[in-house]
Amino acid sequence: MQPQKIMSNSEPQHDPLLAWEANAAYWDEKMGEGNDFVEELIWPVTPRLLALEPGQRVLDVATGNGLYARRLAGLGADVVAFDFSAALIERARRREASAPGRITYHVLDATDEAALLGLGEREFDAALCHMALFDMAEIEPLFRALARLLRPSGVFVFSLMHPCFNQPGARPFVESETRDGRARSVYGVRVGGYLTPFAARGEGLRGQPRPQVYFHRPLSAVLAAAFGAGFVLDALEERAFPPDHEPGANPLGWSGRFAEIPPVLVGRLRIL
Q: Which H or E run includes 193?
């Protein structure tokens, strides 16, 4: 995947929405209620980082087909979930039967600060955004809004494709080496760029109808947006598959072969 510059104001900012509208049915079918990234890397740490109590209100940012909203509702939370794709929200509503009455869905753009504030200032105990910040052309409006939507001491838990190792400019590889007289395979990732933000089109799921737009930012840029809005970081976990994780069909896909290289980063921010 060849990196491209972050889109300028003269380029079509709605292109990410077109991609997700086109991909909604495919993603809902393939993702369903989760995949190995969800089950092994992201969800196991989420309840601990959120530390929810029954009846608390949680905002699920960029909910997609609602899989995390339903899990949050299953923990006893009252969930407000939104996505900018009406097609994805429709898919989420179809799946909500497992948690009737605990989830309210909205079609809303996470880069629209005014619309976000319309959800209600100081109305939420926590917010969640899993694997979606890199889908947003801007993240500063979201962080500014969250600082006002969350109650004092409220937390925001987020996950990202690890910007160091799992980004559009990264290239997995396998090499053969001899050690102690024995040949063995060595798996790794080559990265040709990291500090400069860029946008690139690619596939999150192989075979999806339309490539989506990834907005790569170094971790320092993500945290600068959060710190600028008044958040502090109080938890950060780098998540990798265990050595015994079964590889998929892709010989260079994330699996136990890459047990020392985390494809996912999960963090918790707190508003003081």
A: none
